Amino acid sequence: MRQNDGNEDAAQPSLLRHLFRIMAGFVAANFVAVLLIFLLIGEASIPPDTPSDELPFLVMMMVVGTMFASVLSCVPAGLGILLTELRGIRNPAVFAVFGAACGILAYLFFAVSGSRIIWAAVELWAISVFGLAGAFAGLAYWQIVGRIAGNWR
Known about the structure:
Layout: H1 7-45, H2 55-87, H3 92-111, E1 112-113, E2 116-117, H4 124-144
Antiparallel strand pairs: 1-2
Helix pairs in contact: 1-2, 1-4, 2-3, 3-4
């Protein structure tokens, strides 16, 4: 007969802490992707004489963009997170590739209207920007969570 020394309950907070860290890493990675997309695409559309009092609006757009990116990328990113956690994959290149794939898939999900693709909206430069932003988001996720992937077991 084993005695209960309290170590069985010690694993549960660690798992909850790891799940919270996964969620925080996912949101932070999406913020990085939105920030990069804003810097590469959005800044070109802002006139240089924009007054500085529009800063709260830009911050709000970053928050809304992060929520939007989180919704668009939740399925492919969730599959990548599940795979890396279950297999204990900690290679940053894997996270960058998964992030780029999530960025491209999120862009294609955005370009889909109903059951048909709006081919005028699918442009190579936009796909490459979203892929690059996704790769940086994957690396940001690796920095936060990926270095300890599978450590909850």
